[in-house]
Write a structure and sequence with these properties.
The chain is of the alpha/beta class. 35% of the residues lie in helices and 15% in strands.
């Protein structure tokens, strides 16, 4: 765990994030739904934290908007989809997570009525209490679109007049955003400082076991992006984050505090022994 005496750290319970706790503080379902664009995204950016939440009794659902497929190296679209879905199944089984794919087209994801309703139906079906997705300004267009869809669907999941066979949720799920690759936005600029870090030193083995099941990503990154070992790069990025909080490995998150979203620090409180807050002026310096 992170060193609480580290000069640059402040425990989350002492921070002020402009959050006003509501009367529904203790009524969120302990069901976490992670919706990312592609297979492997969840493993790269939040699997360590999901392991910690699972150990706390949370139900974990991993969902992707697309099955992947466009980036196959020497494999057809359908062959690549099957490979990536099988990799996802094996990875999710390590955590004991449930797996869903909304079946949208890799590289051609659009924010439409159809996909919004699909996402709302999933959130209602599993009775989501907490939702994770990409940052709105992620480097990849599919990821940015996913963020927009998930934000909208999370808010609409409680609306009674949505044409959906599942009953509306009683409470709007709390929404969190995961990191981008290499901590940059779609223009290559540094992303905004995260709201909090999670020390995943105790769960790094699970994270890496899940991530390394996505071997097709290794092949893709090596062939198309000249990244020799993508899995090692993700581990090194986590080590870099860990160094900033006096830990071996870390992941970072942003809570969606705008609009009508509730501001309860539910995840932060549940993982209080792992959550640390870094002085804003020192972040990514």
């Amino acid at each position: 765990m992170a060193d609480t005496n580290h000069q640059a750290l402040i425990k989350y319970k002492h921070m002020k994030l402009n959050t006003e706790k509501t009367s529904v503080e203790n009524t969120f379902n302990k069901t976490v739904v992670v919706i990312h664009a592609h297979p492997g995204d969840t493993e790269a950016f939040c699997a360590g934290t999901l392991k910690l939440l699972s150990d706390k009794g949370f139900r974990i659902i991993i969902a992707t908007m697309t099955p992947g497929g466009m980036e196959g190296i020497n494999t057809t679209l359908e062959e690549t989809r099957k490979i990536r879905q099988e990799e996802s199944k094996v990875s999710a089984s390590i955590l004991g997570a449930e797996l869903y794919c909304l079946g949208q087209k890799d590289g051609f994801l659009f924010d439409s009525e159809e996909v919004r309703l699909q996402t709302i139906e999933l959130l209602r079906k599993v009775k989501a209490g907490v939702v994770f997705t990409h940052l709105p300004n992620d480097y990849h267009i599919d990821k940015r679109t996913t963020s927009q869809i998930v934000e909208t669907a999370s808010m609409l999941s409680t609306y009674p007049n949505i044409p959906c066979k599942e009953k509306p949720l009683e409470i709007t799920p709390l929404l969190y955003h995961t990191s981008t690759f290499n901590f940059s936005d779609h223009l290559g600029n540094p992303i905004i400082p995260p709201h909090f870090f999670v020390d995943i030193t105790s769960s790094i083995d699970t994270k890496m076991a899940m991530l390394t099941k996505h071997n097709s990503q290794q092949i893709l990154k090596r062939a198309m992006h000249k990244i020799e070992n993508y899995h090692e790069m993700i581990e090194e990025l986590g080590e870099e984050l860990g160094e900033r909080i006096g830990a071996k490995h870390a992941e970072v998150f942003w809570q969606h505090l705008g609009g009508g979203f509730l501001k309860n620090p539910f995840v932060q409180d549940e993982l209080s022994e792992y959550v640390v807050f870094h002085k804003i002026d020192d972040l990514f310096a």
